[in-house]
Amino acid sequence: MHHQRPITAALVALLLTTTALAQNPLDELRTTPDRDRLATWIQGRVQTIATGGATAGQAALELRTEFTGPDAFRTLYAQILLEQTRARLTETRGPAAARLLAAAAVVGETATAEIVPILTDALAHPDPGARAAAAAGLRSLRAKLAPGGPPFTSAVAALRRAGRTEASQGALKAIYLALDYSDAGTPPAEPRALAEALADIIEARAARLEAGSPLWDSADPAGLRALLAVRTHLDDAGRKKAALASARLLRHAATHYISGPRPLIDVKDDAAPMLVAARDAAENVIEDADRAVRELLDAPTGPNVANGMKRGRREEVRDEFNRWNELLRTAVGSDAGALP
Question: Where are the domains of the chain?
Answer without folding.
Answer: 190-340
